[in-house]
């Protein structure tokens, strides 16, 4: 099996729109939550979200969208994109530049792209309503590719002329973590030399607010305490959107290009709860098995793990489930790895979360820090005994785990290692 490395990253997130600003926010525990203007209505109990700055994508006409001047997107390309398609395109440009790739590097049969998003409920609703009111033949020609769940891979593969493996992944909040795992497999098995992995979501009213019906969103009005994973008073997650792009490359390609390395992707594991369509197993059994599988596959011992980027979204049930899984794995470890949830800063990005947080782990390893778990006033009693850090530690983690859990009990654990 070939070694796999992360050589480039790109971010459009609630805590920064490039690697430098994201790193600064993680170090300083600077969150991206605000009282979200579209939620400030009497009939909407949710008030806080973590929006993307410097982009205007509120209208259904892409001609009206505004994005930073450093990015160039052709008008005909915009017509086939959702808001998170724009975020993805910009993050992809960042990742390409960061990895110092030429078009010859990425547009060839040995380079592929895996992506994850839930599509755009915002545009899908608009186009369906237009069809009902104005007739079938008045549907926008590119409305389907802009709105459905494969929209990110459709657009990026065509616009960047990707010729290798491509696919979209749909396992809710585990989606882009699955995409990273299977992209790793493509390279480790020698089928591809390079893979782009993309996670993205719109992060607007239509993609966030439906979770209120599940009682999954925080009802706090104060942005500074709305997202507080592992806190005893947490009451739900805060929604966000954006995009994150990772460049994964084989050891041979890294050597050929003399590329800089963020970290090694050492392996991954997955397992399912087999329990409930919407909530995690109360004992965290599926996640525990996913972590065990990841450790075994990557030939990593429990005592070698320095830091865990937890999935913890700030929901009452989910955080306890993960805490139990982590206790089952690390309960007898003398080294007690540092644990935090960066969702206290970013909010929960749904399909975006796995790729975004893998990017955070890559930054932490390369730059030598472990981000704290913000906004904890009183620790959830079920978390006692875990080393949940509340401040950023200025130490380089050598081995990092990143957890992701999705609907239906889908669990993924990724292992990253310093080089």
Helix and strand layout, with pairings?
Elements: E1 4-12, H1 19-28, E2 34-35, E3 48-49, H2 75-78, H3 83-99, H4 103-106, E4 111-116, H5 121-134, H6 143-147, H7 151-159, E5 166-169, H8 175-188, E6 194-201, H9 205-208, H10 223-226, E7 242-250, H11 251-257, E8 263-272, H12 285-297, E9 307-309, H13 316-330, E10 338-340, H14 343-346, H15 353-367, E11 399-406, E12 410-417
Parallel strand pairs: 4-5, 4-6, 9-10, 9-11
Antiparallel strand pairs: 1-7, 1-8, 2-3, 6-7, 8-12, 11-12
For the structure shown, list the relevant keywords.
Peroxisomal Thiolase, Chain A, domain 1; 2 domains; two-stranded antiparallel sheet; 12 strands; 17% strand; globular
Describe the structure.
This protein is globular. Helix 3 (83-99) packs across helix 7 (151-159). Strand 9, helix 13 (316-330) and strand 10 (338-340) form a beta-alpha-beta unit. It is of the alpha/beta class. The chain has helices spanning 19-28, 75-78, 83-99, 103-106, 121-134, 143-147, 151-159, 175-188, 205-208, 223-226, 251-257, 285-297, 316-330, 343-346, 353-367; strands at 4-12, 34-35, 48-49, 111-116, 166-169, 194-201, 242-250, 263-272, 307-309, 338-340, 399-406, 410-417. The chain has 15 helices and 12 strands. The mean pLDDT is 97. The chain folds into 2 domains: 4-257, Peroxisomal Thiolase, Chain A, domain 1 (3-Layer(aba) Sandwich), CATH 3.40.47.10; 265-417, 3-Layer(aba) Sandwich (Peroxisomal Thiolase, Chain A, domain 1). It has a 10-stranded mixed beta sheet, sandwiched between helices. It has a two-stranded antiparallel sheet with strand order 2-3. 33% of the residues lie in helices and 17% in strands.
